[in-house]
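User: two proteins, same treatment. go.

Assistant:
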Amino acid sequence: MLDVRKLRYFIAVADDLHFGRAAARLHLAQPALTRQISALESQLGFRLFERSSRSVNLTCEGQQFLPYARGVVEQLLRSEHFAARLAAGTTGQLSIGYASSVALNERFTQAIQQFSHTYPAVRLTLVEEPSSAQWQHIAEGTLEIGLSRLLPPQEFDALQVQPLDQEPLLVALAADDPLAALECMSLAQLQAHPVVLYSDEQGTGLNDAIERLFQHCQLPLLRGPRGRQITSIIALVAAGQGIALVPACTRALHLPGVCYRPLSEAAASIDLLAMSHRHRRSRAADEFLRILATDPRCDVADSTKKTTPA
């Protein structure tokens, strides 16, 4: 295998066509440089330079080999620079999975925006998928970060879970429902209404939180139709097919005929969790998790304090 150091020596002599000047530029004694070039010529099986007492010139073979030597050295430099950026988390790619109900969360959207602005050379791959798929893909290594509402089961013990927030659960109901006149309502007032849920393969986290809430309040859950995404659930509410219990971020969906009201139960909340592999995570993933852990509401409050005149 060719020694890259010898290739660099060859390029230096080829550029200067003078062993003395090339040796000085390389901070190397001239006899040592001459020996290195001779060793390279022996390895290649042809002479690189024609030497005389007055001049040094490239041989025909040396002229043809020079572009290849430059290409090897330049590729090595590019590889070194890329590796340094990869180690710093400023380049490469990052794959992130997220549950449907997470897509509207301010913490998630602002983290994506800030990360993309700070690390434009990192290519983000964003995949909407249910929690169970995220667990499997993180364990397999095809996904680095998952954002979910549901803790992974014990069999996925290699996953590290980072709690980010607890979002209030709101009631989404038709604007012409008599309960819409209330500013706040209890779960008991809603028990006669069918609850629109996620399809089981899509929204296990939200469904689980809703079932636990009804059990906590010792009330029966009247199951309504199913939707695959948060938008289809709200559309079913607008069509009069029932109510929905949704994370507070869902208020961003301003669908005509639907209104949102808070619940009086203190337990009416749902977790926002970030998941990653305990032992296999890139620097880019670490940096995204750091940004994600910063509450955007705190940033807004801090900036308000700084800009408010005394």
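Protein 2:
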Amino acid sequence: MEVLDEFDINIIKELEKDGRMAFSAIATSLKISNTMVHQRINRLIDQGVITGIKPVINEKKIGYDWGAFTGITLNKDADSKRVIDELKEIPEITECYFITGSYTLYIKMIAKDHEHMRKLLYEKIDNIPGIAKTDSIIELGCAFKRNVTF
């Protein structure tokens, strides 16, 4: 487990506000050197604490009005790697988790409309060999989404 100190936490908080923020702006805000910010961010990336700085896309703004969470039951759990590799080929699937309980995998997917969602489920996902069944819950909007706070 990586131990984060106060400087690491404050740098991450600044990046949470705006991932494009210049290192010099972070340094000024936190009253530390630009070099320290640079070194800390590189270390956090090298340690895997920060896994990337990328845009967060508002899916609704680009025409994806439907979202669903789908539990996937496999015929054999040993098929999970192959099934996951096939799920990765479907761009509308944005997240995939191993879970306990009734399902082997749990995915988040987005679609433009109900017909698009139907095609994703019945023509793409259900046709992946090894999937026994799916169970979907339609998402009606995200109340909030965030990283863990310190």
